[in-house]
Specification:
With about 270 residues, this protein is of the alpha/beta class. The chain has a domain of about 170 residues: Rossmann fold. Helices cover about 30% and strands about 25% of the residues. The protein contains eight helices and ten strands. A six-stranded mixed beta sheet has the order 6-7-8-3-9-10, sandwiched between helices. The protein has a four-stranded antiparallel beta sheet with strand order 2-1-4-5. Strand 4 and strand 5 form a beta hairpin. The chain is globular. Bound molecules: adenosine-5'-diphosphate and magnesium ion (MG).
Length: about 270
């Protein structure tokens, strides 16, 4: 505990679009304390995913700096950045992105295999136990529920024992009860394991599991809430919607998006 796990200093990111330049992040400065659990909220297109990607070394800012512990990410070449991501950062998405032909255990072991390491069986088992899935090691993803698949993805993100875990709407495709299980796990990863957890969410109830909510509007930090209950978070984020660009016309409730493991938010 103690100190910042991640520090962003004046981070900006621009994208070229047909009509010109889109500013996704506009001078964002933020720190995330070691062992803390933070939610990032904002309207669709406010830069939440870009913020996470830049903080995780998956994308490079056009200006500013990102520090992970003592390492300045923006100064690293591709190779060292890849190694750092592999060893020190975990990432889970709304879509679980499991490989369908591999068992839960094989999916969890994948990051170690990709790093050229032989995955110790007890370590894979321990990661699955950590997310409450020790009985599912031999199952293929298609035989698991959405919540179970997301917990496999979580175990896969944890197998390298990363300092920081990022989640981009990790409960976005789950029903409320299953989402709560995943949120309780994320909370516990900060509290018990001392990992730093940063999660994008649109859901005030999900955000209420965190220590701190960072509000992002038009690529800028627009305020913060600390230890706020769901009601207060809902008031501050009212009208921001779910961030889903298209709603299935058959689903009257925009949140009703059962286990769509699609690549895009549904
Ligand atoms: P959020 O996650 O809050 O919905 P994003 O970070 O995905 O927002 O996007 C912020 C802005 O940057 C949006 O206007 C989006 O269209 C744009 N953007 C994000 N990624 C790209 C990209 N790879 N190419 C072009 N524009 C992008
Ligand atoms: Mg996004």
């Amino acid at each position: 505990m103690g100190g910042d796990a991640i520090a962003l200093d004046s981070v900006s990111r621009w994208f070229r679009s047909g009509r010109g330049r889109v500013t996704a992040l506009d001078g964002v400065s933020l720190t995330f304390a070691r062992g803390s659990f933070t939610a990032v909220m904002g309207p669709s297109g406010s830069g939440k995913s870009t913020l996470l990607q830049c903080a995780a070394g998956l994308d490079r800012p056009d200006a500013g700096s990102v520090r992970l512990g003592g390492t300045e990410l923006t100064e690293l070449g591709e190779r060292r950045l890849t190694l750092l991501r592999r060893e020190r950062i975990g990432f889970v998405f709304q879509a679980y992105n499991l490989l369908p032909s591999l068992t839960a255990a094989q999916n969890v072991a994948l990051p170690l295999r990709l790093a050229g390491r032989r995955p110790p069986k007890d370590r894979v088992r321990e990661a699955l136990r950590r997310v409450g899935l020790d009985g599912r090691a031999g199952h293929l993803p298609g035989r698991l529920s959405g919540g179970e698949q997301q917990r496999v993805a979580l175990a896969r993100a944890l197998i390298t024992r990363p300092e920081v875990l990022f989640g981009d709407e990790p409960t976005g495709a789950l029903d409320a009860a299953t989402g709560r299980e995943v949120l309780a796990l994320l909370r516990d990863m900060a509290d018990t394991d001392g990992r730093t957890v940063v999660m994008v969410t649109h859901d005030p109830v999900a955000a209420s599991y965190t220590d701190r909510v960072v509000l992002l509007v038009d690529g800028r930090v627009h305020g913060e809430l600390a230890g706020a209950p769901a009601g207060e978070i809902a008031e501050r984020t009212a009208g921001w919607g779910t961030g889903r660009t298209s709603r299935p016309s058959t689903a009257p409730d925009a949140r009703a998006c059962p286990n769509s493991a699609g690549e895009q938010p549904c």
